[in-house]
């Protein structure tokens, strides 16, 4: 008979003593300081090399696509362009806009001047991502990145009838991810919910529209026009490259934020939050992807999402270096370090999308009963709105109408 030893359950933030919390904060400060004080020529050479590779790959791929009417050229150019767009968004754009390379004081590689191959204007993305998401990571009601307002990714988020379509919505969002981010950053959701006025959203929508037009002109007009008779082939290649980029970046972001091992936090749990407690929230509210160096580069090193959330302004090429030290802090305090291969993390995310598309059963009420009740309420609300609209249109001609569906 073999003896099976089970691992102790991971500790929760509430189980940590004040002394442990302060020690974690001190350890994280030390890890960050060691790297930030060591930045130099090798780091600058790294980002410049990545930018050179990306630009060379994009120019070469677009050149090949000038002959996209030939299938080999179409395939090679499309794949190359997709990779170039992924590098632009992930390892370069995301990280430059985080200010990771501002220490170089190079005006061409700086968070205040960089613009990326993405429909969301850099300034809007920085406001929603750097200032809101990274400040309120996984705090329900404050971090809108928890499902982006269209997905239910935690049991604490209320279930609605619309959640039934969640798997299809998630798949559609992956295909047009850059547009979803652009609309999200422009606060279209809060505007539709009445949380932001149209006047407040107007400048954001104007800038978003300008950026969309610029991107569309480049990918679907100018570049195809240079292809002459291959116009449609090149336009299609750009479309496919953009979709590949969208699917990949969506997968990386989902894997870093929504696997089953990632924790969320109530708003009242962060009252009076100190820097060490903020560290702990980042530690437990993110997930890593294990894999090769190529995967790390293609993911913008967001495969080290935990370390990125702990140190958002640390250059991405250094995250792999600090990961073992960060993991050691987790282990010393019995905390769960969520990491796994991409297929496992992505599978966990999609299992959650399907599971949370359904309501949790209640005492005396099955899922089916809850869904049926929600459908009935929605139908009743629709009948009421239709009846009111008919009355408004009818005006004084028809002073009263019988209830729809009445005998």
From TrEMBL:
Keyword list, A-Z: Oxidoreductase
Gene Ontology molecular-function annotations: oxidoreductase activity
UniProt enzyme class: oxidoreductase
Lyase is among the record's keywords: no
Enzyme Commission number(s) of this protein: 1.14.19.-
KW Cytoplasm (keyword) present: no
Domain (Fatty acid desaturase) ranges: 74-338
Protein name: Acyl-CoA desaturase
Source organism (scientific name): Ammonicoccus fulvus
Lineage: Bacteria, Bacillati, Actinomycetota, Actinomycetes, Propionibacteriales
